[in-house]
Amino acid sequence: MEIVEVGPRDGLQNEKRVLPTAVKIAYVERAIAAGLRRIEVAAFARPDRVPQMADAAEVLRAAPRPEGVRYTALVLNGRGLDRALALEEAARPDEINYVVVASDEFSRRNQGMSTADSLAAFREVAARAREAGLFVTLTVAAAFGCPFTGPVPVSRVRDLVADAGPVDEICLADTIGVGVPPQVTELAGAVRPVAPGVPLRAHFHNTRNAGYANATAAVASGFGALDASLGGIGGCPFAPAATGNIATEDLAYLLNRSGLATGVDVTSAAGAGAWIGEQLGLAAVPAQLGRAGDFPGDHLLR
Amino acid sequence: MEIVEVGPRDGLQNEKRVLPTAVKIAYVERAIAAGLRRIEVAAFARPDRVPQMADAAEVLRAAPRPEGVRYTALVLNGRGLDRALALEEAARPDEINYVVVASDEFSRRNQGMSTADSLAAFREVAARAREAGLFVTLTVAAAFGCPFTGPVPVSRVRDLVADAGPVDEICLADTIGVGVPPQVTELAGAVRPVAPGVPLRAHFHNTRNAGYANATAAVASGFGALDASLGGIGGCPFAPAATGNIATEDLAYLLNRSGLATGVDVTSAAGAGAWIGEQLGLAAVPAQLGRAGDFPGDHLLR
């Protein structure tokens, strides 16, 4: 089972303290050392709005490029893709992750346009990115619920995906951490027929403690990749006191011991999670493996 | 889906601060107000070893007895049952919960005897308790792993249950919070044939963030009841910095929104969780609903 490390992007973007580029690179290096191979390292957003991501180009330039590691950058519009493509070849991301918000109200507040207009912009960006050889993920944000208008109909997510045009991966994101396991199953079932053969990825926040249960449901529903952040850093802008993304080390523990090898060494990952927490000045990270420790052996010992 | 509130027992027993009886009663009252109907309120343990539970008799005497509410007391041996039965009729618990530890090493350290000897003692106590009209739950502690010897074979849990004699309910407990979802399914499948017709209950700690995923697996595996504590209080004696039982409010959110009505009002439960955290002097409780808030509507909106 593939874990996509999103700590350097979704994690750091939602923490108050802005870290120097060198610390971000050290975070990425620790992620790689822990066994992660697909890492979202930057966002091409407006630096005045998202100062945490202002050094996107520098991060992509400075990050090591070992064999087998793929970097993703979040892109919000055509200008973001322009910035990614303006980088010298060796510094470009391998993938872009483009966010379209499933609810109109949230989309207008976040992207300044309706979901339909945002999706139209995506199709154009996706075509250009794919032409340039980049792998393109469409993330459907707020697919499990909207902080402003409440529940999001499954049919709305399905229709959005149906209209997305050619894409390499669909990521269903529970941006505000309200989803529950049957919803994961339901959304997968609704989306798959309108995007046949396109791999699914899921993005969960542990805001209400259902994140790992949702991840387990996603595995059972055939999702191929799960987002997580080392340390579980990131928080949730719509529930300020709540925790962030599900934590890489805790997710890896759950999956590894369930017989679904992730390639992630949980002790090394827990060390990286604790370390980034210190860099951010957090008293403790939401991840629990660092405090509780790994547990040895095969869970299905007869 | 039934939630068994264990905060007043397993929760408080593992917190440092010893609360006055009146505060415990207020906790129980808040649990009832939130919709909980089956509550573990006391343990008949040695007061010198477990000072948090020294007022077991007083709690059982002072707790309100509204129609439909059942109280459980933890009993560790024949002397514990003697103390429960010595109470005046109206103060007796409706149920006893007896713990047998699945691994010999943990059993010797905790109960001072091997698993087999502990099980023999259980059979005697269970027979006496049932004769006295009490509902008897056998909790198999460390069923998912032992803090001293590591993995516990599924066959060991199965054989223990097979030798338990007549019992009203079997509770499989992940005492140290190491279990993963396939283990829940596996254990249920192993235990059911040797205890045909006996309802299953599960007890999870969220020590490594897998507790709610395990609870979801337990629902899917046909368990009839799940333990949880308001606030998620309790901690884990074998991972001092880790969180406690899965939290009632977060579990109720997950189950209610999954279409499995628990009868628990999550907002009221979250208030009770925050309140008990204050009584214990905790900076924050592990439960997240109190910070994040409920989310309205049907998760399966089409």
UniProtKB/TrEMBL annotation, chains A, B:
<dbReference type="GO" id="GO:0006552">
    <property type="term" value="P:L-leucine catabolic process"/>
</dbReference>
<keyword id="KW-0456">Lyase</keyword>
<keyword id="KW-0479">Metal-binding</keyword>
<dbReference type="GO" id="GO:0004419">
    <property type="term" value="F:hydroxymethylglutaryl-CoA lyase activity"/>
</dbReference>
<dbReference type="InterPro" id="IPR043594">
    <property type="entry name" value="HMGL"/>
</dbReference>
<dbReference type="InterPro" id="IPR000891">
    <property type="entry name" value="PYR_CT"/>
</dbReference>
<feature type="domain" description="Pyruvate carboxyltransferase">
    <location>
        <begin position="1"/>
        <end position="270"/>
    </location>
</feature>
<dbReference type="Pfam" id="PF00682">
    <property type="entry name" value="HMGL-like"/>
</dbReference>
<comment type="similarity">
    <text>Belongs to the HMG-CoA lyase family.</text>
</comment>
<protein>
    <submittedName>
        <fullName>Putative hydroxymethylglutaryl-CoA lyase</fullName>
    </submittedName>
</protein>
<dbReference type="InterPro" id="IPR013785">
    <property type="entry name" value="Aldolase_TIM"/>
</dbReference>
<dbReference type="GO" id="GO:0046951">
    <property type="term" value="P:ketone body biosynthetic process"/>
</dbReference>
<dbReference type="GO" id="GO:0046872">
    <property type="term" value="F:metal ion binding"/>
</dbReference>
